[in-house]
Amino acid sequence: PPSPASCAPTPRPRPDAPGLGWARLGSETAIEAQAPVAAAKGAWSGDIGTVTVRLSGTRLRREFLGRVGAGLLFAGLLLSAAVTFLWVLMTHFLAPIARILRADAEAGPIPPGEVPDDEIGTIMLSRAEMLFKLRLAEGQARALAVSEGHRADELGRALEELRQAKESLARSEKLAALGRVLAGVAHELNNPLTGILGYAQLLLEDEALSTAPAARADLERVLAEARRCQRVVADLCAFSRGQKPVKARIRLEDPVRGAVSAERPRLEAAGVLVREEYGPEPGFVLADAAQLERCVINLLVNARHALEKSKGGLVTVRVLARGGRLRVEVEDEGAGLSPETEARLFEPFFSTKPLGKGTGLGLAIVRGIMESHGGRALFERPSAGGARFILEFEPAFESAAGSPAQAPEPGAAARLPSGGLCVLVVDDEAEVRSVLLRMLERLGHRPDAAVDADEALRLLAAGSYDCVLSDIRMPGRDGFELFAEAIELRPELKGKWAFVTGSIEADTWRRVQETGRPALQKPFASEEVARVLAGLA
């Protein structure tokens, strides 16, 4: 048999690797690909030929366009499905939600035509009903809140009125207590003040002092200080009793100058300087000059106490017009006041001074006097520090019947009717009797004295008197009982009777008015005695 080697095909050349290129296929250009083909059987193996593949351009274009068309068809179907999904989403989901939100913003109902007939529409209607009930509840809650707010305001006003009423009641009770205390204290103060004023005035009228100017100056100082004490007691009494001031049209700066002049020595002794500032035009007010002077003195005393802590300083006193009103300002450079102190500044009995240094009545008296004048007492905190107190008045314009008040001229008492009267003086206080007897003798009258009602009745029964000056508060029978018994004994004395009293009690003065007789208030000066006797003569 032949050997395997003799049966092997004749080898043909083949490409070493697959190839790709261009070839002519008739009249067209084609892509040609060649690849060797190998075979093996048993121990034999070898190449058996070459595979050639030709692809014409026409077929290639058809294959490409077919595949691109299929891709485009699939993309179109996918886009249509997406658009349909978005349309359904917008129509059935987002549009109702947007309408609901718009209805919430507009706070109005949704028109029936805009409610879809499906589950979303049911949700919209349910939510609209819920919102309607919620808004109704909110409206009722707001109405209730407004109503409760009005009630709260009314309750607040009622509580404020109650607080003010309680404060007014507490103030009235304090003033009533003050009045009861002053009623007793003033009587005890007025009796010795009567002696001091009376004897000082008698000494000043003594011609022997004309050669002793220093002693005369000292006596004038004593008399001025005693009259100052008299004014203090009188103002306290007027404040506690609510006594109306005796008003006249005065120049506002006059009592201010008087207060500064009276208080300047004590201010300068404490190292306090006083600066006065008065407006170019005089301002007139309808006021009680003595009470206004008392107000300014109280403010100056407060300023002095405030500056004593800092070893001196400056106090500025101004009289000016502002906002159609007249003002008196007393400003100091002290440490100022805390808000707590400022809130209670004008309360009776409230004081920031140490025990024994103040009564707590100074600013309360100022406020009471200003209120009785239709004015205001105010406090301001200056920007530079310290304290500023203000007395504010309505201006008094000159009228046909109005003119500035004129002070009594010196020696006015000498022009009053005097001399020749037989006067009975009834008083249990020896110093008051003595001063009154000396004054009557100096006026040229013939005085007699009794210590109580019993002695007075015996003298009236035994002698003949032209007029009687009788104290009211005496041991045993008082002055009113003596008056009633005396006019029974001698009816002609009813029009010749005058009371003398140091009392400030309202009931006492009411009873005096009921008798229709005049009253001489202790302490008194000889001019006042002469004026009362002139009315009885």
Describe the structure concisely for a colleague.
Helices cover 52% and strands 19% of the residues. The protein is an alpha/beta fold and 537 residues long. It has a 5-stranded mixed β-sheet with strand order 5-7-8-10-9. Strands 12-11-13-14-15 form a 5-stranded parallel β-sheet, with helices on both faces.
The amount of beta strand, in percent, is 15-25%
Largest sheet: 5 strands, mixed
N-to-C SSE series? Answer: HEEEHHHEHEEHEEHHEEEHEHEHEHEH
Output mean pLDDT. 78
Whole-Å distance between the termini? 199 Å
| Order of adjacent strands in the largest pleated sheet | 5-7-8-10-9
The radius of gyration over CA amounts to 58 Å
Class inferred from helices and paired strands: alpha/beta
Catalogue the unreliable spans: 1-14, 400-418
How many strand units?
Answer: 15
Helicity, as a percent range: 40-55%
Coarse morphology: rod-shaped
Count of helices? Answer: 13
Q: What would you note in describing this structure?
A:
With 537 residues, the protein is of the alpha/beta class. It is built from 13 helices and 15 strands. The chain has helices at 4-7, 57-106, 119-204, 213-241, 253-269, 289-308, 339-343, 362-372, 430-442, 453-462, 479-489, 506-515, 526-536; strands at residues 19-25, 28-41, 44-56, 248-251, 272-278, 284-287, 313-322, 325-332, 376-380, 387-393, 422-426, 446-450, 467-471, 497-501, 519-521. α11 (479-489) links the parallel β13 (467-471) and β14. It is rod-shaped and about 190 Å long.
